[in-house]
Specification:
The chain has a 7-stranded mixed sheet, sandwiched between helices. By secondary structure, the chain is of the alpha/beta class. The chain has 16 helices and 15 strands. Helices cover 42% and strands 15% of the residues. It binds 3-[O-phosphonopyridoxyl]--amino-benzoic acid. The site of 3-[O-phosphonopyridoxyl]--amino-benzoic acid has 17 residues, from helix 6.
Length: 460
């Protein structure tokens, strides 16, 4: 951020103008207008400042985006250079440009060898819209146009546009009119939340077998693909048991159902591997990407296709009737190149895997392993969740767990740390450049927020 930033307007003035004209994401706008949103004006590495000079440690990389942290001059310079050279051109008129060509070369040098093609978008939601059209087209070209149904998971999140939210499993989004035909759902692999006494391994197998049951119920000849986040993000940072993914992969192969990984938050180093499916050791047919692709400095997403799928679409598919005005935007591509180059050449992903990732996980287990409010700690690399529980031994959750985690998040803001709450879990996903010192600050402030929450509800 520019170090000489001076507030331009009073915070309440910004808030009033915002309330007059802006509908925010996922909240009650009337209630927000009364409270007034925080006005964030700058960032540096993991820290953010608001208009009143308050400083926060951002434990969420914005919204799972700023893998390189805030304030990277190399990314700003890459955007400026490209804006001056060629600010825009499209991919419609038999044209391309160096920025998108070079981005593809770099991206596929980082991806496992069995991926070969990308369709670029502006966001994760769009990547998943494109996914549905692309897998349906794939089956059409192979002479199986009836293979159309997408199976997702309850509480999965794949974006906020119509088809992406329908494929996701957020019921409150469906209730806003967001459903489309030919979409089905199975349960999420949330071991802590299940009511039986299965071991995690048994539960993982049972959760995966639901996919087989659903495919048989719908008829394999009608099912196009299964889509899931390798670890579930917006729905609570849920890590499936180890038995889950191998079983899912086996079922998809057995019934000729495409396996689609939504890597929008797991991609680009979060788990210590370049892509989260590599951590869980399975081989999807497609990857949806966004967020960490540019560290969020500029919007860009994409759908990555396996060589097998791309060959069918390119060699036999004829006209692919899809295109976005900003697909492969040169400025976004230039920023993505600078971002991926830095993640690779500065050893950021390797550092998460070998040093800072294990360090964060160890600190959390030391600090919260015996905490009276915490029932389970999940995570790997620089992503983690603290499950709040009334009784750890029996996995009994608080009836009002959503209120308790929301309160913890609010206290976090007061203590200068941004961590995210979901139903019963507190989530953190700091920038991948975090040092051990910054991780100490994150864990230390989170401890204060969790302790204060525990005191308020009388368990500490
Ligand atoms: N897939 C996944 C797995 C995501 O997490 C999207 C797709 C959609 O991406 P766009 O770029 O269209 O927003 C996302 C978005 C949260 C939260 O609270 C997470 C997201 C969005 C909003 C809130 O964790 N991820």
């Amino acid at each position: 951020m520019t170090t000489d930033y001076k507030p331009q307007r009073e915070t309440k003035d910004y808030q009033a103008a915002d309330a007059a004209h802006h509908i925010h994401a996922f909240l009650d706008q009337k209630a927000l207008n009364e409270e007034g949103p925080r006005v964030i004006v700058g960032g540096d590495r993991l820290h953010l400042w608001d208009n009143d000079g308050n400083r926060y440690l951002d434990g969420m990389s914005g919204l799972w985006c700023t893998n390189l942290g805030y304030g990277r001059k190399d990314l700003a310079a890459a955007a400026t250079r490209q804006l001056e050279q060629l600010p825009y051109y499209n991919m419609f008129f038999h044209t391309t440009h160096p920025a998108v060509v070079e981005l593809s070369e770099l991206l596929f040098s980082l991806l496992p060898r069995h991926y070969s093609h990308a369709i670029y978008t502006n966001s994760g939601s769009e990547a998943n819209e494109v996914l549905i059209r692309t897998v349906r087209r794939y089956w059409q070209v192979l002479g199986k146009p009836q293979k159309k149904i997408m199976i997702g998971r309850w509480n999965g999140y794949h974006g906020s546009t119509l088809a992406a939210s329908a494929m996701g499993g957020m019921k409150f989004m469906h209730e806003m009119g967001g459903v489309i035909p030919d979409v089905a759902h199975i349960d999420e692999p949330y071991w802590f939340g299940h009511e039986g006494n299965l071991t995690p391994a048994e539960f993982g197998l049972r959760a995966a077998r639901q996919l087989e049951t659903k495919i048989l119920e719908l008829g394999a000849e009608n099912v196009a693909a299964f889509i899931a986040e390798p670890f579930q993000g917006a729905g609570g940072m849920i890590f499936p048991p180890e038995s889950y993914w191998p079983q899912i992969q086996r079922i998809c192969r057995k019934y000729d159902v495409l396996l689609c990984a939504d890597e929008v938050i797991g991609g680009f180093g979060r788990t210590g591997e370049w892509f989260a499916h590599q951590h869980f050791d399975f081989e999807p047919d497609t990857l949806s990407i966004a967020k960490g692709l540019t560290s969020g400095y500029i919007p860009m997403g994409g759908l990555i296709l396996s060589r097998r799928m791309a060959e069918v679409l390119v060699e036999q598919g004829g006209v692919f009737a899809h295109g976005l005005t900003y697909s492969g935007h040169p400025v976004a591509a230039a920023v993505a190149i600078a971002n991926l180059t830095a993640l690779r050449d500065e050893g950021v992903v390797a550092q998460v895997k070998n040093d800072t990732g294990p360090y964060l996980q160890q600190c959390l287990r030391e600090v919260f392993g015996n905490h009276p409010l915490v029932g389970e700690i999940q995570g790997v690399g620089l992503v983690a969740a603290l499950q709040f529980a009334q009784d750890k031994a029996t996995r009994k959750r608080f009836a009002n767990e959503g209120d308790i985690t929301w309160r913890c998040r609010t206290i976090g803001f007061e203590e200068g740390v941004i961590i995210r709450s979901t139903l019963g879990r507190m989530i953190m996903a700091p920038a991948l450049i975090a040092t051990r010192g910054e991780i100490d600050e994150l864990v230390g402030k989170t401890k204060i927020a969790v302790d204060r929450t525990a005191q308020e509800i009388g368990v500490l």
